[in-house]
Structures are given as structure tokens and as C-alpha cells.
Amino acid sequence: MNILDKIVADKRKEVDLRKSLIPMSQLEQSVLFDRQTFSLANKLRNSQTGIIAEHKRRSPSKSVINQNLNVFDVAKGYEDAGVCGMSVLTDGKYFGGSLDDLLTARASCNVPLLRKEFIIDEYQLLEAKAYGADVILLIAAILTRNEIKQFSEFAKSLNLDVLLEVHNEEELHKSIMPSLDMLGVNNRNLKTFDVSLETSKRLSTLIPTDFVKVSESGISNIEAIKELQPYGYQGFLIGENFMKTDDAGESAKQFIKSLL
Ligand SMILES: O=C(O)c1ccccc1NCC(=O)[C@H](O)[C@H](O)COP(=O)(O)O
């Protein structure tokens, strides 16, 4: 079994348990459920830099990145740096994240928040809304076309933006549909962890122009952004490069300053 299959198998068990502990009706009663959400897609369309900065303590490919940073300070730092959005990993077992991280980030800043998760059930979209997210991620590699349609339409009914992530042509062809806002190309192969910006370049021409294009993973310098912008990318998801430093917000600030 590859790592992605393992993550998804574990996630199914976790979501089943969560559902039995907190019913959907309780999530819908969250004070955050009826808040006006921020659109990441609109922010990216109107930005010169397009940085989506991630909170990421550890990962299957790198094990520990940084366990010492406080998500409240990281969120505030990213906002002060001028990011377009913040991605918050909420998976506990593989990334050391939690829904509490999402809530803490929400309490700390007013930038669009992406719940970075392995979404396999509509229940997780209700959780995303209840804990303050504005955007959800759908990963084509772990979903059927019908699931992508069902989850993205449900997310839109909750006023959440949808970022659909692909890694190859087949995933892209099965996923294109009007209920998506942003098409993300992950430069990291989630089964082997190989990273190449060439993936974003190769797939760029196949993405219809009505979607905001986002390049994800393995972006560690300004040159990478300059290389990807001519391919139509308006969003750049960056995790490790900021999180490996002592001050992720300051690192994002210097990065964005050099881009302008
Ligand atoms: O990062 C991993 O090792 C990983 C492994 C398996 C599934 C997902 C994984 N990462 C999620 C992400 O998409 C990245 O955290 C995100 O794009 C930022 O990447 P980076 O800038 O390389 O930290």
C-alpha cells in the first residue's frame, strides 16, 4: 500500500469516529457557520504575488519541519506579510495538525483560510465551515469524478471556495467541472514524494482559463515563481520554505517584498 492509500484508509476510520462523536447538526450550530467567507480565488485574481502560505509542522516526506512555532503567531505573521491566503493542515497523524489549528488561525487573522485535508466525506466540509475555513481542498488522486462533483457542489452551497488538486493529465481530465474555483497542480507526487516544477508547466496549457491556476509544493525561491508566472499561475502554495525558519511570517514578508 502506498502512503496516500494508507493516509486515506486511516482518514476513513478517523472520520467515522468523528461523525459518531459530533453530529452534523452540532457543527451547523457553530457560531462560525453563518459568517461571511472570504474568497481566495478573488484575492489571487487581483494579486501581483499570489502567495498562499502554509502552516505545516511535519510531513510524510520530510518528517519534522518545525514543532516550535505557534499557529496564532504564524497566522498573524502571514497576514502582516501580505499573503493572499493561509493553508492550515488539519491532519493529525501525518502532519501534526488539527481542527484547533484552523480555529486558532481564524481567531488570529482575516485572510482566506484553506482547510488542507484529505477530504473523503461531506462531513469534513461541515467541519471546515464550523472551524472557520473559507476554502477546501479536493485531491483528484483520492476521489472519483462523482465525488468531486458532489463535494464541490456541497462546498459551494456552504459558500466555500474549492481548490481542486491534480498531479497528472488523467486526474485533470476527470476533474474539470464548473463547481471548482481554482485548479492546483501539485509538483509533489504524493505516492513517491518526487518534486518537479515541470509538472506545473506541463499541465498549465490543459487548464481552462476560467479557473485560477495554483502551483503547489517544492517552491523555495523567487526564481521558481518567476519561472511559473508566464505559464499563467496566479497562486503559489508554499509550506516548508517558510515553516523551516524561526519566524515563518517574517520569512513570508521578505519573500513577498522581493517579488514586488
Ligand atoms: O508534504 C508532503 O510530504 C505530503 C505527503 C503526502 C501528501 C501530501 C503532502 N503535502 C501536502 C502539500 O500539498 C504541501 O504541504 C503543500 O503543497 C506545501 O508544500 P511545500 O511547500 O513543499 O512544503
UniProtKB/TrEMBL annotation:
Keyword flag Lyase: yes
Molecular function, one GO term: indole-3-glycerol-phosphate synthase activity
Catalytic reaction list: 1-(2-carboxyphenylamino)-1-deoxy-D-ribulose 5-phosphate + H(+) = (1S,2R)-1-C-(indol-3-yl)glycerol 3-phosphate + CO2 + H2O
Presence of the UniProt keyword rRNA processing in the record: no
Pathway: Amino-acid biosynthesis; L-tryptophan biosynthesis; L-tryptophan from chorismate: step 4/5
All residue ranges annotated as the Indole-3-glycerol phosphate synthase domain in the record: 4-254
Stored Pfam families: IGPS
Superkingdom of source: Bacteria
UniProt keyword terms in alphabetical order: Amino-acid biosynthesis, Aromatic amino acid biosynthesis, Decarboxylase, Lyase, Tryptophan biosynthesis
One of the GO BP terms on file: L-tryptophan biosynthetic process
EC nos: 4.1.1.48
Similarity comment: Belongs to the TrpC family.
Name assigned to this protein: Indole-3-glycerol phosphate synthase
Species for this entry: Mariniflexile litorale
